[in-house]
């Protein structure tokens, strides 16, 4: 199976929300339908700070990836963050996520993105191997810290 990527559009909202719900349920991320919709919908309407790509055929996607964009003085310009990456369990292990993480950064570099970041659970060995294959590396002196300013649903 090839990792076809399709920029998600408003008509894809229901499929994306279904996939996000599956991902959040699997990983224990607390969210409800209203929160998921509010987070995804602006990106489907062209919000400049992020994009959602369907992975696989648009009518029956096998997953999705969400990218958000920022700016880094240190890295010399626009950078991105893989906010979420999900592949349906029945098709995992076929190299789809690896292909996405190798192909998409090349495309993004071609439009000026300087770096792509992601976060991963220290204990998720499968994800660590996946991201290593895609040439993501831990930053030597840094780790991600977060201050939540607004709770989901609040």
Map the helices and strands.
Layout: E1 5-7, H1 13-27, H2 33-44, E2 50-55, E3 63-72, E4 77-87, H3 96-110, E5 115-118, H4 125-133
Parallel strand pairs: 4-5
Antiparallel strand pairs: 1-2, 2-3, 3-4
Helical region count? 4
Helix content: 25-40%
Overall 3D shape: globular
Number of strands: 5
Radius of gyration: 15 Å
Report the sheet-strand fraction.
15-25%
Taking the sheet with the most strands, its summary is: 5 strands, mixed
Question: H/E order of the elements?
Answer: EHHEEEHEH
Placed side by side, the strands forming the largest sheet appear as 1-2-3-4-5
Compute the average pLDDT.
93
Poorly predicted regions are none
Structural class assignment: alpha+beta
Whole-Å distance between the termini?
40 Å
